[in-house]
Amino acid sequence: MKKILIININYYELIREIKVPNFGWSNGVCMLNKNILFTGDNNGIIREWKIEEDNLILISKKKNAHKSCINTLLNIGNGHFASGSCDNSIKIW
């Protein structure tokens, strides 16, 4: 079982451990808020997850978000995030 570890980098303290369903390889992870998380994969797909206790529940899947692997997801505030890809593009969501 894959896991995402959320760590307080100021104190190197584990805050939360979240179980990740087996859906393939994830290159990027971005928390939009304490309940919503996004992942990006090698196939250019972005998945939106709801965090319930220590599990992820799939909310939506953005197929063809990019033409190639997604290597970066970044929370940019106000409910938006950016994704960067090997297709040399950056998209704002």
Number of helical segments?
0
Number of domains: 1
Structural class by secondary-structure content:
mainly beta
Distance between the termini: 29 Å
What does this structure look like?
Strands 3-4-5-6 form a four-stranded antiparallel sheet, with no helix packed on it. The mean pLDDT is 90. It contains no helices and nine strands. It has 93 residues and is mainly beta. Helices cover 0% and strands 63% of the residues. The chain has one domain.
What is the element layout, followed by pairings?
Layout: E1 2-8, E2 13-20, E3 26-31, E4 36-41, E5 46-52, E6 55-62, E7 70-77, E8 80-85, E9 90-92
Antiparallel strand pairs: 1-2, 3-4, 4-5, 5-6, 7-8, 8-9
Salient structural properties:
single chain, 93 residues, mainly beta, 0% helix
The gist of it:
With 93 residues, the chain is mainly beta. It has strands at 2-8, 13-20, 26-31, 36-41, 46-52, 55-62, 70-77, 80-85, 90-92.
